[in-house]
Amino acid sequence: MDLVNEFAFKQKKYMPVFPKASGKPTVYIEGYPFEDDEPMAATGFHGIQITTFFDQISRYFDINEHIHIGIDSFIYYREGDITKFVAPDVYVVFGVDKHPQRRSFYTWAEGAAPVAVFEFLSDSTAHQDRNKKVQLYLKDMGVQEYYIHQPEMEKPSEFRGWQRSPSGDIIEIEPDSEGGLFSEALNLWLRWEDDQITHVRLLRPYLPDGTLITTSMEEKYLRIQEQDLREQEQERRIQEQKRRIQEQHLREEAEALAATETDRRKEAETLAKEEAERRQKLEAELEQLRAQVANRQDEST
After folding, report:
1. Cβ contact 175:140 at 8 Å
2. Helix (H) / strand (E) containing 170
């Protein structure tokens, strides 16, 4: 089975549909800072989680030129007020051009706000992530969905999400029996798993049918596996073809031997028949001679 092509088919099938934003791509607006002195990730756990999740989401939405994925960059959401900004770990914006890359994202210039925002909990920001930012993202900024996740396995698991209803109310998203949350905005399932190698509780996206969205490394490994399977299948077909040719040769040899044996048998039967006829002829001649001898003896007496 060609898993890569099968996934590409599903990717197009489940890709969200949305209108084009009213603004235009804006790389930078003078006077709005686009960096600070804070590192991107609070810990190594957060670094692995953020880069892994960004890799998966970016790869999945890469086929649509009007989806922008941001990672730990400033979002300014109030024109003229440089204090009204946030820097989510990962966010997704529909309807805007994927390129060029922005130094910051300006909602009024682009004509769109993120449809989904993801924050990965750290000791310094967890309280704000659970409380203040719910109101800020969903009410003040107009984000459709907001998620928080604890990536450190040594700490209790915590994965929650909120969405804005059509009437503007904030509703917490109900998890399924396995603790997963379905993102209506992204049309994806979101689930976490413990990675025993990195000791990171990884949040990962899945298609609505449960198909995992792989990382770049997993995709590369998958392609190598499929290439190996294709080569094995090709080798199997070659060996099968060789076996069939060998069997055909054996059948032809057997048929040739059978034909030779038939010819020999027919030849033997012909010789036997000729020998029988010769013997019969000799016996007939001998019998005739005997009769002639007997007649001469009778005449002489």
Report:
1. no
2. strand 170-172
pTM: 0.75
Instruction: Write the burial class of residue 198 (CB in 10 Å: 0-12 exposed, 13-18 middle, 19+ buried).
Output: middle
C-alpha torsion sign, points 138, 139, 141, 143: positive
- Taking the C-alpha atoms of residue 103 and residue 142, their distance in angstroms, rounded to an integer, is 21
Residue 297: which residues within 8 A CB-CB, separation 6 or more? Answer: none
Res 37: pLDDT: 64
Nearest to 190 by CA among 141, 158, 147: 147
Each residue of 50-104: pLDDT tens digit?
999 999 999 999 999 999 999 999 999 999 999 999 999 999 999 999 999 999 9
Which residues are CB-contacts of 111 (< 8 A; sequence separation ≥ 6)?
Answer: 21, 22, 23, 24, 95, 96
> What are the structure tokens assigned to 86, written together?
């946030």
DSSP track, 70-108: EES--EE-STT-TT-EE--SEEEEESS-S-S--SSEEHH
Q: Distance between CA atoms of 1 and 251, rounded to whole angstroms?
A: 35
What is the average per-residue pLDDT within 179-200?
95
Q: What is the pLDDT of residue 69?
A: 96
Q: Residue 147: which of 202, 25, 156, 137 has the closest Cα? A: 137
Alpha helices for the chain (secondary structure H):
3-14, 44-61, 107-110, 126-130, 132-135, 216-300
Report the alpha-carbon distance of residue 45 to residue 52 in Å, rounded: 11
Q: What angle do CA 274, 279, 281 make, to 5 degrees?
A: 95
